[in-house]
Amino acid sequence: MQPVSILLKPFAKRFIGGETLEEALQTLHQLHHRGFLTTLDFLGESNQNRAEAEKAAEEYIANLKTLKKEGLDRNISIKLTQIGLEMDENFAKENFTKIAAAAKATNGFVRVDMEGSPYTEQTLKLTAEVHKNYPHVGVVLQSMLRRTPEDALCMLKEGIRVRLVKGAYKEPPSIAYPDKKETDRQYVMVMKRLLISGIYHAIATHDEKIIKEAIEFVKKEGIAKDSFEFQMLLGIRNKFAKKLLQEGYRLRIYVPYGKSWLPYMTRRLRERKENIWFVIKNIFRG
Ligand SMILES: Cc1cc2nc3c(=O)[nH]c(=O)nc-3n(C[C@H](O)[C@H](O)[C@H](O)COP(=O)(O)OP(=O)(O)OC[C@H]3O[C@@H](n4cnc5c(N)ncnc54)[C@H](O)[C@@H]3O)c2cc1C
User: Fold this and answer.
1) Choosing from 113, 161, 184, 252, which is the catalytic residue?
2) Nearest atom, ligand 1, residue 39 CA
3) pLDDT tens, 112-145?
4) Ligand 1: which of 233, 266, 275 to mutate, judged by most atoms within 8 Å of the beta carbon?
5) Is the pTM of this model over 0.85?
6) Rounded to whole angstroms, how far apart are CA atoms 222 and 227?
7) Residue 120 near ligand 1, beta carbon < 6 Å
8) Confidence at 7, pLDDT banded by 50, 70, 90
9) Domains (ranges, CATH) in the chain?
């Protein structure tokens, strides 16, 4: 294990469901018991080896069967660079299609996470192509990107379910809002478009102000509580998530697992300076 991974491991425990599937299944069962919906992510990205990419796709297919057997949500989140997008688009599409077919066979759902902007176009294109034969696949849009309102319209036209997030990758100002307020403003604008579309979408944020605005909007528009869902990441705003659940909203928790947690954890650290302090305090505590 690299020194940086050793330092981050105590911090990672809060945010990942475990390093093995067995550990993640325990986390999923606990969440289900408390009334949450879940989506399972097998950690990994930027695969440069075809055999490894195929192995990742096989792990997802096996996971769908295990989730069914365990009576858990057959809902998974995948990354296209994990299954070969950086190497060969057709190869990634083949792997993606196999996963989508397995999800169909288990009556499940595949969400394609959105990665950095070099992959936005290909991710939307491949999702739309696979969606034509497998309607139970959806995508993620990032409100920090200037292009997102147009992408949302395209996805709505295709009837594709969207998870709306702010965006976790560092992007240049030419294509993304450098100002967080603009990202939030665009989030609310796109969120309202999604909520009134009649398609089941996911509002994925821990931002209390935005969630309150979503709730006011759905009440005003008479949108049913079961016609959309909120989503949060494991280990973030737990009490608030519980409160939403008690108010009768659907809440899905994103549960990542696996040994390749460093890039995921680095994004969680960057999002919030208190997390960096937590790591530093642990280092000095020894
Ligand atoms: C279910 C789900 C799936 C996601 N999938 C993707 C994806 O596919 N692609 C992508 O680019 N991004 C994804 N993200 C991450 C997203 O883009 C944001 O980076 C992340 O959600 C933080 O933004 P926020 O909306 O919570 O708002 P923020 O304004 O950043 O945060 C609002 C509040 O949430 C809490 N919070 C936020 N982040 C943290 C943290 N790391 N640690 C502790 N508290 C925190 C704090 O209380 C903060 O004040 C996903 C997020 C969720 C919830």
Assistant:
1) 113
2) 1
3) 999 999 999 999 999 999 999 999 999 999 999 9
4) 233
5) yes
6) 11
7) no
8) confident
9) 17-48+56-260 (3.20.20.220)
